[in-house]
Amino acid sequence: MEIWLAEQITPDCPVYNIGQFTEIHGAVDPTLFEAAMRQVIAEAESLRLQFIDGDDGPKQYVGSPAWSLPLIDVSADLDPQAAAEAWMKADYEQPADLLHSPLFCYALLKVAPERFFWYQRTHHIVMDGVGFALIAQRMAQVYSERVKGVATSECPFGPVSLLLENDIHYRASGQFTKDQAYWLKHCTDWPKAVTFADRQAPALQHRLRHTTYLSSQSVRTYAADASRLAQFVTAAIAAYLHHLTGTQDVVLGFQVTARLGEDRRIPGTAANVLPIRLTVQPDMSLSSLIEQAAQEIQHGFRRQRYHYEELRRGLKLAPSQRLFGPTINIMPFDYDLCFGEYASTNHNLLNGPVEDLMIAVYTQSDDRPLRIDFNANPTLYTTDELIALQHRFLKFLDAVAAQPTQLISSIDLLDAAEQRQLLVE
């Protein structure tokens, strides 16, 4: 409902488009691929949701929107990769019409005879990151079965009605009441959210993004387990924010799937953001801050289905009041997929609106470097500011990973050139 209302206020805003493309390292049969795509879309009811705006508010139903799978051949272009990326950008920058047209777009882009991009874009009102992963996994499975000429396996998806019914049951349950009481008490005397920016602005444009890869072995020791990595990154960001701003009461957003049991197998939108509050002192080590972060995340996980929009209303926050500063998004989804005999690599394009700064960390299934995205509201940060912020954070991250027991205040964020500029020049 919050997404629906946001779209009514700014209907020409494309920030609720989410997207990715899957790079397939080999030849693709377009006919078999489209047949597989049609089967998966028929199985995934959330993709086919359509909306009606009546006198008593919006309603949704599972329809059969007309769609096609275009084959875009850019292999003869001087720069096929750039041409493919330009085509995708032109699509995802278009605002969606919630009352008309399908709320998804899929395309197959031929970059070379042995290299294809499968482009995927949906609206966040019907799909989140978990749903994206479920669709990609099923698509790889169905296409591979068609290539082999074997019978298609049973659909693992549940109906979207089950996702909605489970939410209704939760809201009527004693667990909802307990979760509500916990969060309202937990957020009493909540501090002002401090960020790296010096002002606020709504998210009306797609985020700025700067991506880097971190191969530091010290950091990778935390990456073997998604929970441990989440605690480490959360503590490191809190310490980094303290280092740069001096704030000791740090509040961060932590993205969660908000799915339990059978909901984990239903594509749709259920994701939530937990408010995480950490106390950072200069004489603390990162190790002690990790313990604090682990406890906060663990308590939040138990109550992750209570949505932060409900919490904002319960706390009677003004629209301009933020509940948290930077947001952390750990992406442990399995994208080690094969299409027929060919491996693939997933490339995230859009995660939805970014109010301030979102730091996304993508885990890999092997020893490949961690991918770290800094996504920022372009009204609040310039590209140069974002790059500098990320550069210093990676330096900080490497330092605390190598010696997690050292005092946070002892870590130097300036490189040799910057030290010379300050102290000598």
List the helices and strands and how they pair.
Layout: H1 2-9, E1 17-24, H2 30-43, E2 49-54, E3 57-62, E4 71-73, H3 80-92, E5 104-112, E6 115-123, H4 129-148, H5 160-171, H6 174-186, E7 208-214, H7 217-220, H8 226-245, E8 249-256, E9 272-279, H9 286-301, H10 308-314, E10 327-331, E11 338-339, E12 342-350, E13 357-362, E14 370-376, H11 383-402, H12 416-423
Parallel strand pairs: 4-5, 8-10, 10-13
Antiparallel strand pairs: 1-6, 1-12, 2-3, 5-6, 7-14, 8-9, 11-12, 13-14
Helix pairs in contact: 2-4, 8-9, 8-11
Domain Condensation: 3-423
Pfam family, one: Condensation
Protein name: Condensation domain-containing protein
Model description:
There is one protein chain. By secondary structure, the protein is α+β, with helices and mostly antiparallel strands. 36% of the residues lie in helices and 22% in strands. The strands form 3 sheets. Strands 4-5-6-1-12-11 form a 6-stranded mixed sheet, with helices on both faces. The mean pLDDT is 91.
